[in-house]
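Help needed: design a sequence for this.
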């Protein structure tokens, strides 16, 4: 049995007039994240972690933001595509763990829904999906509310 770990990171800027989507869950807030797709930074970090663990590059390579096909794209669908790409190389997903760094809004009430949603998308049981939220005590771009970031690690296995 072979195991690989992968790391992913993403950050997006807040902008008024957009929905805030994290892990495929719409979080009520006065702003959303700016991006070509739905700008779901959590899904993007997880997608990059899966691709990274399988040595498949990153989502910019597979789903370029210059391609109109991905405009407003549902990032949960993109995440599922990344899993399929890894599976095509014989990899199975073992678990995922992620941190969303965000000062406002408070994400705690939505974390469980995000984890459940991601588990459904990735065919993982609830114990194999972890999502956490952190503030930066006001420091940096997340602290000032300019944007938020997400970090993710995944483990893949294959025979
Ligand atoms: Mg992104």
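Sure. Designed sequence:
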């Amino acid at each position: 049995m072979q195991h690989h770990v992968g790391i992913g990171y993403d950050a997006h800027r807040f902008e008024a007039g957009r929905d805030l989507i994290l892990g495929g869950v719409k979080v009520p807030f006065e702003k959303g994240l700016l991006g070509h797709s739905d700008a779901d930074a959590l899904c993007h970090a997880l997608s990059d972690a899966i691709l990274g663990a399988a040595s498949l590059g990153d989502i910019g390579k597979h789903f370029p933001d210059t391609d109109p096909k991905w405009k407003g794209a549902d990032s949960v669908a993109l995440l599922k595509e990344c899993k399929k790409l890894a599976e095509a190389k014989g990899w199975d997903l073992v678990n995922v763990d992620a941190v969303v760094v965000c000062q406002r809004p408070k994400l705690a009430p939505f974390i469980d829904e995000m984890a459940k949603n991601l588990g459904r998308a990735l065919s993982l049981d609830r114990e194999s999906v972890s999502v956490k939220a952190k503030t930066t005590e006001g420091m940096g771009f997340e602290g000032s509310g300019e944007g938020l970031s997400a970090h993710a690690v995944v483990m893949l296995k294959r025979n």
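Residues 10, 12, 35, 41, 44 surround magnesium ion (CB under 6 Å).
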